[in-house]
Request: fold
Amino acid sequence: GAGVSQSPRYKVTKRGQDVALRCDPISGHVSLYWYRQALGQGPEFLTYFNYEAQQDKSGLPNDRFSAERPEGSISTLTIQRTEQRDSAMYRCASSSFGSTEAFFGQGTRLTVV
Amino acid sequence: AQSVTQLDSQVPVFEEAPVELRCNYSSSVSVYLFWYVQYPNQGLQLLLKYLSGSTLVKGINGFEAEFNKSQTSFHLRKPSVHISDTAEYFCAVSVTGSGGSNYKLTFGKGTLLTVNP
Reply:
């Protein structure tokens, strides 16, 4: 596609369930990033990949959060045993290797009830 | 660690008026500076960026920003706004350097610009 695609756009889940959020980056973009944006806040860095290698996961809040990018293209952010505090907009971005310009998707709005 | 402060959470202005959205940052190392815009129901879009060189940076849609190292500021300006500029604007920084260290953006909380007719 022309841009970064995220799915689903909206996800409502019950507390304790696992969720998987998908990101399809711009074709040919080597680098992929995940951010989380709480209401009224700016996005906060979660994790970053170059190709299939997870380079930095320092922003993942705890071990319920994990991300993968097995073939260096599509990435999945998984949240296990969701809690209400996980409710937020989850944003994915991609860029060419070493580029300072990241292109963002529309995000996935996660609501944990 | 870096931090970004956007001093105004909301800025209402009338159409064709000038606007300035303020951004200050804190960092112990050199940074790159960015402004992103988010229109309703869309993703973040890069408006402009400062990497090096001229401190006045021009971006899309008639916006510009000026890097002021002594004041650690990167304020966004537009001389005459349109209704279509209504959106949320985010200032962000990343650390300069090689090895991909510039990948991690630190964002401010955002400023909601509302342009009224």
User: Anything to note?
Assistant: The two ends of chain A are 33 Å apart (CA to CA). The CA atoms of residues 36 and 42 of chain A lie 8 Å apart.
